[in-house]
Input
Amino acid sequence: MIVAILLLVASLAFLVLEVLLVSFGTMALVAAALGVASVVVAFGEARWFGWTMVGSLVVAAPVALWGAFRILPKLPFARGFFLKPPPQPEGDRRAAAPPLTELVGLEGEALSPLRPAGSARFGERVVDVVTDGVPAPKGARVRVKEVTGNRVLVVPVGPS
Output
């Protein structure tokens, strides 16, 4: 019983070492062989213990791999493998654009001919808009009828 558990622990250790050291799969093969040996020894002890070892191996192997990949960037010899994002100056950061839903009901001016898409100005804000098929010339007054996501639907409200 102790031998099967020790073989399982050794298998997991070799699996972690495969991630941390370059062995071109050699340690992974040793880990697989030790895992199979632990299951075989466990089934030799008792059937329930064999199935327990199979379940333990199925659960513990992915957890060991996850842990190895989590600690890999923190190790001194592996820090150079991972790129760090360049520092971003404070002036280059932008705030998220204000939501377009606040435009519903506002009137503005078409900055380009809307056939059916174009752009319009609402106060100081310039927005890409679309009509429901009715073309509008440049300079026409338009009202925001509906906003769906980033699609702003406008309707002409009269002559420019």
Q: What stands out?
A: DSSP finds three helices and five strands in the chain. The chain has a mean pLDDT of 88. The CA atoms of residues 3 and 38 lie 7 Å apart.
